[in-house]
Design brief:
The chain is of the alpha+beta class and about 180 residues long. The protein contains one helix and eight strands, in the order αββββββββ. Helix content is about 20%, strand content about 50%. Strand 4 and strand 5 form a beta hairpin. The two termini are about 40 Å apart.
């Protein structure tokens, strides 16, 4: 095998390796550029807010009234007084904004007393916080565009003044 053929084969292998490394490098750069050029990043965070509010009830009409007992009392002066023992059930739905409260109250007695109170609160408050992060890539300066690396190619030799393969260290510039 002649020296020219060996040189050509070595140059071809070097060129093949360089092309492979270049393709892998460009793919990696494209992948990283995809990450860098995402100018807007969204993240959502859902918080629960607790709030205290007072409902003022002005009209409270009982739903059911059950008379359990009627007592008649005669006073010394001859007047009669009827004492009515009642059980009452009150139902009320209170609404303020998106919040609702279902209230059930049970009372009984001559001097009305509270027997039980049931309250079911339905509150709905959702706060969505959107965070937008904007990242800008710094422009390359003049000196950041220079790169030093291995080069393999085919060119005119300095001594022979003919086309021949070469391999070596070279400097490149990105525009």
């Amino acid at each position: 095998m002649s020296n020219n053929t060996k040189t050509f084969i070595l140059a071809f292998i070097g060129l093949f390796l360089f092309a492979s490394l270049y393709i892998v490098h460009r793919c990696e750069i494209k992948r990283l550029e995809g990450l860098k050029k995402s100018d807007t990043v969204y993240s959502e965070k859902i918080d629960t807010l607790w709030k205290t509010d007072t409902f003022k009830i002005t009209e409270f009409i009982p739903k059911n009234i059950i008379k359990t007992k009627v007592d008649t009392i005669v006073k010394k002066d001859g007047d009669t007084l009827h004492l009515i023992t009642e059980s009452k059930e009150f139902n009320k739905t209170l609404v303020k904004g998106k919040d609702t409260a279902d209230v059930k109250i049970y009372t009984s007695g001559i001097n009305t007393q509270l027997d039980s109170l049931k309250m079911r609160l339905k509150t709905h408050n959702e706060v969505i916080t959107k965070t937008i992060e904007i990242t800008k890539e710094k422009p390359k300066t003049f000196w950041n565009r220079f790169h030093i690396g291995l080069q393999v190619g085919y060119g005119i030799g300095l001594r022979s003044k003919q086309f021949e393969p070469y391999a070596g260290v070279g400097v490149s510039f990105d525009f």
